[in-house]
Structures are given as structure tokens and as C-alpha cells.
UniProtKB/TrEMBL annotation:
Name under which the protein is recorded: 4-diphosphocytidyl-2-C-methyl-D-erythritol kinase
Stated family: Belongs to the GHMP kinase family. IspE subfamily.
Sequence ranges assigned to domain GHMP kinase N-terminal in this UniProt record: 74-158
E.C. no: 2.7.1.148
Stated role: Catalyzes the phosphorylation of the position 2 hydroxy group of 4-diphosphocytidyl-2C-methyl-D-erythritol.
Phylogenetic classification of the source organism: Bacteria, Bacillati, Actinomycetota, Actinomycetes, Streptosporangiales
A molecular function GO annotation: 4-(cytidine 5'-diphospho)-2-C-methyl-D-erythritol kinase activity
Amino acid sequence: MTATQRVTVRVPAKVNLQLAVGPLRDDGYHDLVNVFHAVSLFDEVTATEPGAAGAFTVRVEGEAASQVPADATNLAIRAAEALAKHAGQIGADGRPYAVDLLIRKAIPVAGGMAGGSADAAAALLACDALWGLGLSREELMEIGAGIGSDVPFALLGGTAVGTGRGERLTPVPATGAFHWVFALADGGLSTPRVYGECDRIRAEAGEEVAWPSADEALMAALRDGDARALGAALANDLQPAALALRPSLARTLDVGRDAGALGALVSGSGPTCAFLAASAGHARELSEALTSAGVCRAAVTADGPVPGAEIVA
Ligand SMILES: C[C@](O)(CO)[C@H](O)COP(=O)(O)OP(=O)(O)OC[C@H]1O[C@@H](n2ccc(N)nc2=O)[C@H](O)[C@@H]1O
Ligand SMILES: Nc1ncnc2c1ncn2[C@@H]1O[C@H](COP(=O)(O)OP(=O)(O)OP(=O)(O)O)[C@@H](O)[C@H]1O
């Protein structure tokens, strides 16, 4: 296999159409039924040979660059290092694997849209090509699962159900395109903190935590391409926790609903809010309503489903 000198990968954000959170496991994770949906909001990761041998470096560009670590804690670097380890650290040319990563960030940081996981997935695909490893997407997904529960889906894309901690994926057949608006918030929410708040709320309510299961009405809506039925079926068990930690999101959701969204929910662990529209034009109207009401930092429109991480150059 021939190695290339520069590889650029485009990778989508996700929204969770159903996030059913089961009991807390002994390893600190929750068993989930997590219906992932990839949307057309993309980060780009470019991998090039670094100057120094054996180095793993990262630079981040974009409005939110200052919120992303540019060191070994960056999820893209962690992914590249995990791939190098998997491949035995030393390339066929006798030199240790190394990479310089450039992330062009458009996915909101700590926004509940899996931006860091997306960059990790993109780094795996880009380094696989840069180093000429030729691993299958399934092998990359398995390495990705060790970096974070959302990473395998960023490699798969489309619409898929995640079980376990969200890393075991089964594609879901979906018809047509869905039109979305995302209300971006100022500042992020920490994923472990939101899961912790969910546990706290449940314990306080003395709730018996049910084993999660996929919603058949949601699956039928996806299969039929029925946006109205999908809007009615959207559900996120982390939403009460995200609203408790960020009460202002309740008003954001209300404004979108009042403006005619077919469905409104917090995306994953938040604080981004997602609204399903009836058409691309309706999505633009919703976006304007959210912006003019001053209930978000910015509103962006996107379509789903889209493919997972792809090499674009
Ligand atoms: C909220 C979601 O984005 C929905 O897709 C994911 O469940 C979170 O996925 P992620 O950011 O890739 O999360 P990870 O990096 O795997 O885990 C971060 C932390 O989130 C919590 N976590 C995550 C996944 C899961 N099934 N149960 C959990 O309780 C745990 O506290 C864990 O330590
Ligand atoms: N490449 C990266 N991009 C964004 N954040 C990163 C990256 N690498 C590490 N991080 C750190 O991870 C934290 C969470 O970022 P991320 O954008 O993935 O959150 P999220 O979208 O809420 O995740 P999820 O939806 O998977 O729970 C950030 O606060 C940041 O410090």
C-alpha cells in the first residue's frame, strides 16, 4: 500500500433522535439506546507528515479554536496515537508513525453534537491513509470506541442505533432528507456532568430505571421519511438534566416550538437545541425566529442523514 503526504477528511456532527438512558453500569457508563443521525455540519481534519520524527502535533482553526486543546489531550491526537499503537508504532520505512493534524472546526465545542468525537474519527481515517495502513472501517470503528462512545458513529454516518454505551451500531433504514435547525448556545456543557445530573434527578425521584428500548414509532417515521411523525417521536432522556444545568434552554425550545417546529429537543448532552423543520424554507424561517428572539448565540440549518467521515482530498 502506498502512503500519501497529505490527507483531508470531512466529518459530520450528530444529533440524537432518541437517547434512552438505562441504568448506571459498574464501569461508570450507562447502557443506551442511542439513535444517531449525522447532519451536514462538518469539521475538516488534514493530516500531514510532521517535521520532527515521532511527533504528534495539532493546530485548530475556526471561531471556537480557543476552546479546543492543542495538546495531547485533543481527541484527534489521542485517536492518532491509538492507531499508531495498534499498527505497532513503527512504519514499513522503519520510522515511528507521526502526524501533524490541522482541525478546521465548525461543529460547536462541548455542544452535544460530538465535535471532538468527529475529529477523532476523522484523524483515524486520515492517518490510516497517510500511513498506508489500509485498515477497514470496522477496524477503525473498534479503535475509535476506545477513544469515546460517539466516535464509531462519526465513521459510520447516516442514521444508526447505538447500544451498549452507544458504540455498538446497527444502521437504520431511512427515506429522504430531514431539515434541521440548530440553536447554538454560549458556552458548553460537560457530558459526564449531564449524565451525573440525570442520575441525581432519577435518584431524587426514586425512579426505577427501565432497560432502554428503541421507539417503534420513531423507526417507522424514519423508514417512511415522515418528518411530522419523526418530530413527534424525538426524545432525549438527558434533556431534564441539561435543562436543570442550563434553565435558559427551556425558552429556546419554546421559541422553536411556537415558530412551528415539527419537533424540538436538546441535542445529546446539550446545550445545542435541535429543531425539525418541514422543508428547507421552513428551516430558514425557524432559524430567523430563533435568532430574532435572542434565545441563541447563532442558529444554523443542516440536513440529515449524511455519510460519515470521508476523505475529500
Ligand atoms: C451524550 C452522547 O453524546 C450521546 O450520543 C454520548 O452518550 C456521549 O458520548 P461521548 O462524549 O463519546 O462520551 P465518552 O467520552 O464515551 O464518555 C464521557 C463520559 O460520559 C458518560 N457516559 C458516556 C456514555 C454513556 N453511554 N454513558 C455515560 O455515562 C460517562 O460519565 C463518561 O465518563
Ligand atoms: N478535537 C476536539 N474538538 C473539540 N473538543 C475537544 C477536542 N479534543 C478534546 N476536546 C475537549 O472535549 C470537550 C468536549 O468536546 P466535544 O465538542 O466533543 O463535546 P460534545 O459535542 O458535547 O460531545 P458529545 O456530544 O460527544 O458528548 C471539550 O470541552 C474540549 O475540551
